[in-house]
Design brief:
This protein has 170 residues and is an alpha+beta fold. The chain folds into 2 domains: 83 residues, Winged helix-like DNA-binding domain superfamily/Winged helix DNA-binding domain (Arc Repressor Mutant, subunit A); 82 residues, no CATH class. Helices cover 47% and strands 15% of the residues. It has 8 helices and 5 strands. The protein has a 3-stranded antiparallel sheet. A hairpin with a 4-residue loop joins β3 and β4. α3 crosses α4 and α4 crosses α8. The longest helix has 17 residues. The radius of gyration is 17 Å and the shape is globular. The chain starts with a helix and ends in a 5-residue tail after the last helix. The mean pLDDT is 89.
């Protein structure tokens, strides 16, 4: 059974996996949550080939998860933004983050890649934090986040390596 067949099944889990079930889609969404909007930025931080990234973005656009917006006419350049449907995946990504913090092989004293605070309550969002059951959906826009020094360094190194490989100057 291929992904196209899975998207027609009666099982909602299989249908959801047919849209967001690969790591690249979730990493693209992570980058968009962090503010990356342009193709090169997404490619630099995910490490995807341009062909694979292009294919994933087109599929995400077809599925209504992202939308393309023209930001430069000559030459035509686009940025990508999450749609409302894409933002509805915020709780899923948060739960993956929490699971990864708990079971991803980090030691108890390991600094999280991003420190997150839930704005409404001031609570630290860690591996044990649970979304409030207020009826309002969780959104990353409801958090205050800062990136750790080590993850900042890792992201800068990725950006520099990407630009170097493309022959671009910093």
């Amino acid at each position: 059974m291929g992904w196209d067949d899975v998207s027609d099944t009666e099982c909602p889990i299989a249908r959801a996996c047919s849209v967001v079930g690969d790591r690249w889609t979730l990493l693209i969404l992570r980058e968009m949550i962090m503010g990356s909007r342009r193709f090169d930025d997404l490619q630099a931080q995910t490490g995807m080939s341009s062909h694979l990234l292009s294919a994933r973005l087109k599929r995400m656009e077809q599925d209504g998860i992202v939308e393309r917006r023209l930001y430069c006419e000559k030459p035509p350049r686009y940025e990508y933004r999450r749609t409302e449907k894409g933002k509805e995946l915020d709780p899923v990504i948060l739960l993956l983050r929490q699971w990864g913090m708990k079971y991803g092989g980090f030691g108890p004293k390991h600094e999280p890649a991003a420190h997150m605070i839930y704005k409404k309550t001031g609570e630290v969002i860690d591996a044990e934090w649970r979304m409030p059951s207020t009826g309002k959906k969780f959104r990353f826009a409801d958090t205050q986040s800062t990136i750790s020094k080590s993850w900042t360094k890792e992201r800068e190194a990725r950006r520099a390596a990407f630009r170097s490989a493309k022959g671009l100057s910093e």
